[in-house]
Design brief:
Prephen_DH, 5-stranded parallel β-sheet, 12 helices, globular, 6-phosphogluconate dehydrogenase C-terminal fold, Rossmann fold, 2 domains, single chain, binds prephenic acid, 3-stranded mixed β-sheet, binds nicotinamide-adenine-dinucleotide, about 300 residues
């Protein structure tokens, strides 16, 4: 068996599915791509944009002859999407996905497709935009793709999937699914929850008019509004499917927030200053790592 997949089927042609389709066509043109989306208007737009080589009219048609199927649908739709594809799957087709939480997805895909090799993955790359116009080929460039195989998964198949992600620009990390869900709860899910909260709070305030919120939304608040514009379906599902890890991180966060609230009430400037100094250092180290990412060569030479 070669290291390369021959045909990749992408189910769900929004931001993630569209970006994978465009990136594979650009960097790995020898791999055939097909795709399917439940929404007819999305299928039509995907065909216009050429998000995949062939936009199929059914899920079964899309997965025909595919040796890799990637589910790029909201977390709550993974089970239905897999059920729809099942009758058309090659018995040896590898199944993957891009869902933002991993334990729950692995469970549902394993239940629906018990006889397939399932290797869940999560590209930590996205924007606040969704749908068939949101995807672009360079989305994964220099970004992490976390692969969360179950214990005992064939190392060859893990490597084959890793090589694919690297070829479309990503850096790959292998992680246990439960650990992934805790890490992402704090680095991605909680920040979105905070953004959704603060933008809602500002919108509800009676003493500050809507006009003032819009007019003075410079700097920090504006960044929050970008995140709070993220897709409601996707994020509803993230909080439903990574519930326990998010609730744990939210508890820790609430305790820390209460400590800062106390420091403000007591006029404890030293505590506030020390805290802000520590967080500034974290930001700076993230930027330094980002520069490493931008300058690295990830071997994206089109060869797999
Ligand atoms: N947006 C991000 O920043 C981001 C980043 C990493 C991972 N993810 C994950 O990627 C997945 C997709 O997110 P997205 O941002 O591409 O969303 P999106 O809304 O842009 O695209 C999802 C597509 O799935 C389609 N769909 C829904 N149910 C379907 C079904 N049963 N069969 C076929 N198609 C179906 C929708 O019509 C839609 O076009 C989610 O699981 C999300 O958690 C998102
Ligand atoms: O950059 C953004 O807009 C994102 O929200 C991307 C982001 C993130 O939180 O980093 C969102 C969800 C994911 O599953 C992965 C990436």
């Amino acid at each position: 068996m070669t290291m390369s997949f021959a045909k990749i089927a992408i189910i769900g042609l929004g931001l993630q599915g569209g970006s994978i389709g465009l990136a594979v066509q650009q960097y790995l043109p020898k791999i055939a791509t097909s795709g399917y989306d439940r929404d007819p208007a999305t299928r039509a737009r995907a065909a216009e944009r050429g998000l995949v080589g062939h936009v199929a009219e059914t899920a079964v048609e899309a997965v025909q002859d595919a040796d890799l199927v990637i589910f790029c649908v909201p977390l709550g739709a993974m089970g239905d999407a897999a059920r729809e594809c099942a009758p058309g799957l090659r018995p040896d087709a590898v199944i993957s996905d891009v869902g933002s939480s991993k334990e729950a997805v692995a469970k549902v895909l394993g239940e629906v497709l018990p006889n397939h090799v399932i290797i869940p993955a999560h590209p930590v790359a996205g924007t606040e935009n969704s749908g068939p116009d949101a995807g672009f080929a360079s989305l994964f460039e220099g970004r992490w793709c976390i692969i969360t195989p179950a214990e005992g998964t064939d190392p060859f198949e893990i490597e084959r999937l890793s090589v694919l992600w690297q070829a479309i620009g990503a850096r790959v990390e292998i992680m246990a699914p439960a650990h992934h869900d805790r890490v992402l709860a704090v680095t991605s899910h909680l920040p979105h929850l905070i953004a959704y909260t603060i933008v809602g709070t500002a919108g509800d305030l009676e003493e500050v008019t809507q006009n003032e919120v819009i007019k003075y939304s410079a700097g920090g608040f504006r960044d929050f509004t970008r995140i709070a514009a993220s897709d409601p379906t996707m994020w509803r599902d993230v909080f439903l499917y990574n519930r326990d890890a998010v609730l744990h991180m939210l508890q820790v966060f609430t305790e820390d927030l209460t400590e800062l609230q106390k420091a403000i009430r007591l006029g404890d400037g030293e505590k506030l200053f020390d805290h802000f100094t520590r967080t500034r250092a974290i930001r700076r180290s993230i930027i330094e790592q980002g520069q490493d990412v931008a300058s690295a060569n990830f071997g994206r030479d089109g060869k797999v």
